[in-house]
């Protein structure tokens, strides 16, 4: 292959890449007018998440946390870039075939967009289709510059192809794509600013039923232990939303309907603020939390009792012969979660939360409204960006995660975690403070025990229990001796149930086993 042919091949690949970039840029611009969530990267990414096996999702959450979304988007972009490079090379020999191949972008993106649970209809396919048409036309034009046969010896002609014309067209395409992409991002951002502005205007009323003061002994002063209240900025986030939904509180509505609902309700955000508000400290746990994992946090929530709204709608729990045993909560992004009606109406502080740690819900944690149900894992209770509640039965409907082989019912398991010392730490010999948190929401923790190596189980000191719905901090003064040691912790809840030593993975209803750390004492 001559150097000229190599050069043309490289420029053909570049043409494919530029065409792919143009397709994405135009698609993002069009999606700003249609719906930002209809953009091809977001739509394809969402479809990929929906079709990913539960075990793979769980692995991603466990190993990369919320960065899984960034990695997925980067992976999609890398795949598109590789595909575009190949199409450019194909177009150099088969111009029409290569250009037509760009339309695959449009077909895949449009199909993904219109098949999403939150799709607004056929219009959601328009961004990907329009972008693909622009990309196909651009690739056809650029390859034409590389294959054009011209007569003459001017310096802008190299062995029959229009070098100057190609470079001018490629440069113009790159600039136009950058401009279209930047404009699309700006316009989409402006739509999100309405939600940000509406949140800034929210003034949470004083709760009618304030949370009890946190007991003085609930927060031991031990270096390295998790704080009793998790700051909003450090509260875990696990969901499938590639783009955080941005909902204007003024436009938000919640509909309550379905089996056993005798008086369907539609409430606004202002309606909720004008109702009786409760404030409670509640610990939430993600079902993807491994033994000793980070996906658990405690916050002070403000909201409206969900049971009150359901009773107003005429709903009765199964224990009172109500026909519905499942409450299906739907998010604005199409996510569905199924919660036992009995649990929501058994007297626990299940709520539609509007505030978190003294401020309106952060956007990433569900603004303007989310569900909070003490004692249940998040995938069956903690619907963020909620907009619909349908009363149905477990026999009639399987929500998102249940269709992916997770359990229908998932009470939080009794667990304890060692926060300090850290795994493979090297503390000095002498008194070492071993400390952490334990949780058994809606049951409470009555005992935490520590074992060093294969020694006996020894009770740890327990901080005061704020409520049975919060985690409980604990600490233990360990007389550490030089050498390698394994520290293991276990908890017992207030029903007398001892945390099991049997190891189980997170699927289908939460991990079990006992947390341990290995340290070397110097």
List keywords for this structure.
five-stranded mixed beta sheet; alpha+beta; globular; five-stranded antiparallel beta sheet; 522 residues; single chain
Would you kindly provide a brief summary of this structure?
With 522 residues, this protein is an alpha+beta fold.
Structural class by SSE content: alpha+beta
Count the E strands. Answer: 20
Distance between the termini: 65 Å
Q: What count of helical segments does DSSP give?
A: 11
**Which value, in Å, is the CA radius of gyration?**
28 Å
The dominant shape is globular
**Percent of sequence in beta strands:** 15-25%
Q: Main β-sheet: number of strands, strand sense, barrel status?
A: 5 strands, mixed
Q: Your description of this structure?
A:
With 522 residues, the chain is of the alpha+beta class. It has eleven helices and 20 strands. Strands 4-3-12-7-8 form a five-stranded mixed beta sheet. Strand 1 and strand 2 form a beta hairpin. The longest helix has 39 residues. The radius of gyration is 28 Å and the shape is globular. The protein starts with a helix and ends with a strand. About 2% of the residues have low confidence.
Secondary structure: elements and pairs:
Blueprint: H1 3-34, H2 40-51, H3 54-64, H4 67-93, H5 95-101, H6 103-115, H7 126-147, E1 157-158, E2 161-162, H8 163-201, E3 253-258, E4 265-268, H9 269-273, E5 278-285, E6 296-305, H10 306-312, E7 326-331, E8 336-340, H11 341-344, E9 351-356, E10 359-360, E11 370-372, E12 386-392, E13 415-420, E14 430-439, E15 445-452, E16 458-459, E17 461-462, E18 472-480, E19 483-493, E20 516-521
């Amino acid at each position: 292959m001559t150097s000229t042919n190599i050069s043309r091949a490289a420029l053909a690949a570049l043409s494919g890449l530029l065409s792919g970039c143009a397709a994405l840029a135009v698609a993002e611009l069009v999606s700003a007018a249609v719906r930002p969530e209809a953009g091809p990267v977001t739509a394809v990414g969402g479809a990929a998440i929906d079709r990913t096996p539960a075990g793979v999702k769980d692995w991603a959450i466990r190993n990369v946390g919320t960065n899984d979304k960034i990695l997925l988007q980067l992976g999609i972009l890398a795949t598109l870039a590789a595909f575009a490079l190949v199409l450019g090379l194909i177009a150099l020999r088969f111009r029409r075939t290569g250009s037509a191949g760009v339309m695959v972008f449009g077909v895949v993106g449009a199909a993904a967009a219109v098949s999403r649970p939150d799709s607004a209809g056929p219009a959601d396919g328009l961004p990907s289709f329009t972008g693909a048409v622009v990309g196909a036309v651009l690739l056809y034009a650029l390859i034409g510059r590389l294959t054009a046969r011209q007569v003459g010896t001017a310096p802008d002609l190299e062995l029959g192809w229009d070098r100057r014309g190609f470079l001018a067209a490629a440069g113009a395409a790159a600039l136009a794509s950058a401009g279209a992409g930047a404009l699309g991002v700006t316009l989409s951002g402006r739509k999100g600013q309405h939600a940000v502005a509406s949140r800034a205007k929210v003034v949470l009323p004083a709760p009618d039923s304030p949370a009890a003061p946190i007991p003085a002994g609930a927060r031991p002063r031990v270096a390295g232990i998790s704080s009793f209240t998790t700051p909003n900025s450090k509260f875990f986030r696990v969901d499938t939303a590639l783009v955080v939904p941005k909902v204007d509180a003024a436009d938000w509505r919640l509909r309550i309907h379905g089996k056993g609902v005798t008086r369907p309700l539609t409430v606004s955000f202002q309606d909720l603020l004008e109702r009786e508000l409760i404030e409670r400290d509640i610990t939430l746990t993600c079902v993807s939390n491994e033994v000793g994992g980070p996906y658990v946090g405690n916050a002070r929530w403000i909201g409206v009792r969900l049971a009150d709204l359901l009773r107003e709608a005429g709903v009765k729990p199964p224990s009172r012969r109500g026909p519905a045993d499942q409450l299906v909560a739907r998010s604005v992004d199409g996510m569905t979660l199924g919660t036992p009606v009995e649990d929501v109406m058994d007297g626990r502080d299940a709520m539609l939360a509007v505030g978190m740690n003294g401020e309106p819900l952060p956007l990433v944690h569900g603004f303007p409204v989310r569900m909070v149900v003490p004692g249940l894992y998040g995938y069956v209770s903690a619907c963020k960006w909620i907009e619909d509640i349908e009363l149905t039965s477990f026999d009639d409907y399987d929500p998102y995660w249940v269709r992916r082989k997770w359990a229908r019912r998932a009470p939080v398991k009794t667990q304890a975690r060692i926060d300090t010392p850290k795994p493979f730490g090297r503390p000095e010999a002498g008194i070492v403070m071993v400390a952490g948190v334990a949780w058994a929401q809606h049951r409470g923790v009555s005992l935490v025990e520590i074992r060093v190596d294969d020694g006996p189980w020894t009770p740890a000191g327990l901080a005061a229990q704020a409520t049975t719905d919060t985690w409980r901090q604990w600490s233990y003064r360990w007389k550490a001796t030089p050498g390698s040691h394994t520290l293991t912790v276990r908890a017992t809840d207030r029903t007398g149930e001892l945390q099991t030593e049997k190891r189980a993975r997170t699927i289908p209803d939460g991990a079990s086993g006992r947390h341990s750390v290995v340290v070397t004492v110097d």
